[in-house]
Design a protein that fits this description.
5 helices; extended; 128 residues; transport; mainly alpha; Amino acid permease/ SLC12A domain-containing protein; single chain; 0% strand; transmembrane
Length: 128
């Protein structure tokens, strides 16, 4: 346990472990400024494994949604499957979280893209 006001010092091995666990874009965008490491200290294998695991999960979810859409071929959103097969409250939460994901994620991606574009197009205002 660390006393208040005491600073935590990480070893080189701990920093390399953090760079494998925490996605690189978190460090590059400054979400975790205390973990910013030189890029030569990072290991690419952890990132590759994380992308492979993520791709497998996305593939499984898409296959399940494909099976559900073949079983019930009607036009609707996938939250209806959660409502019917799990519970109505789960379908409600899925629908609202899907909407929230699109609104928050799209807005934050547009702001991030605008900030990054300021490096090359300095004369254009940020809000455009």
């Amino acid at each position: 346990m660390v006393a208040s006001g005491e600073r935590i010092v990480y070893s080189k091995n701990e920093c390399q472990a953090f760079s494998n666990v925490v996605p690189r874009w978190c460090n590059w965008n400054g979400y975790f400024p205390e973990l910013q490491l030189p890029h030569s200290n990072g290991r690419a294998m952890g990132t590759i494994i994380a992308y492979i695991v993520g791709a497998c999960l996305v593939t499984l979810v898409m296959m399940c949604l494909g099976e559900l859409s073949v079983h019930e071929p009607h036009t609707s959103s996938f939250h209806n499957y959660a409502t019917k097969y799990i519970h109505p409250s789960v379908g409600f939460v899925v629908a609202w979280l899907y909407w929230l994901t699109w609104t928050v994620a799209l807005g934050s991606q547009l702001v991030t893209m605008a900030i990054l574009m300021q490096r090359w197009f300095t004369g254009i205002p940020l809000w455009i």
